Amino acid sequence: MNQVFINRVSKFLPNEPIVNEDMEIYLGKINDRESKAKRIVLRNNGIQTRYYALTKDGVPTHTNVLLTANAIRNLLDADFKASDIQLISCGTSSPDYLMPSHAVMVHGELKNGQSEVNSASGNCCAGMNALKFGYLSVKAGNTANAVCTGSERMSSWMLADHYNKEVENLKDLEEQPIIAFNKDFLRWMLSDGAGAMLLENEPRGPLPMRIEWIEGYSYAHELEVCMYAGADKLANGDLKPFSDYHSVEWLNQSVFAVKQDTKLLDKYILDKGVESMKDAMEKHGITPEDVDYLLPHVSSHYFVDGLYDRFAKAGIEITRDKWFMNLRSVGNVGAGSVYLMLEELVHSGRLQKGQRILLCVPESARFTYSYAYLTVC
């Protein structure tokens, strides 16, 4: 088996950073009313700026494919050209199309010549699953390199216009014309952007990072769905897919809106995260002392103190001075967040040879968790 190295990390963030006060300029106001959830959600999540692939009129400026392709282009130079890419492995929860797959469309945008492609779907762990596919391909010798990406373009899903038909339907039914909290919640949580990594079977560049291992854990066998889109949740916890609804219901009930069961999120996301991380560390025989930087993808600063306390109680306390996050300035970019954290850390000038990095990505969709352990070479 080959060793696998992350030799380059890049990003692409669309347009200019957007402050909290300007979010509804871009997304619009549902029913021409300011959101009641906005202030509460933003106070808890601690995000101060984020990026949207939108104009102030809500017109898209980039597709997810273009965001991803631009992040890949930022990896390239004379020493590693687009034509050198042997595998493109892309993860996202917000593809532009139901089909073809996201990675195929990115390949078509790059026009880099013959490449193998892989698309990882899901939510936040999709980026890590794309990374693991590339890691295993290079490790097994199937390819000598892989370009892996994590990206999101959620802003276009959150435009007020997508919810106004449901509001009109509620008025017709003489019900309160207010979108449910489980839909409005995520409008103030999600951001756009893309990150990319170049994996190779030999170290290159000033500070390559060797991938020691990548682990994934799913608790779908124990827990019901928490975050979903293109479906509605029934009283028994099952999901009814969009294809089982009449087309008029797609608009009247905002079936395609991204929804979050916040009660389930609060109840399970931290406990299962600690359980899975402890299992991963014990499996590979590492302790908190073997971690110099922890890069935890958290959707909200609301969870940070609770996560730290649970780590401590479980005997895997990683001191806060080792935590590296950029949620406040970049926002929650889902499958792209861990790529954007690592890119910022790599270009911060802080890394030194021999340091160890632990990537930690939870996914609330049905409670999935991914971890990767890196050594700076």
UniProtKB/TrEMBL annotation:
GO terms for molecular function: acyltransferase activity. The keyword Acyltransferase applies. Residues 281-360 form the Beta-ketoacyl-[acyl-carrier-protein] synthase III C-terminal domain. One of its GO terms (biological process) is secondary metabolite biosynthetic process. The keyword Cell membrane does not apply. Keywords: Acyltransferase, Transferase. Signal peptide: none annotated. It comes from the Bacteria. This is Beta-ketoacyl-[acyl-carrier-protein] synthase III C-terminal domain-containing protein. The lineage of its organism: Bacteria, Pseudomonadati, Bacteroidota, Sphingobacteriia, Sphingobacteriales.
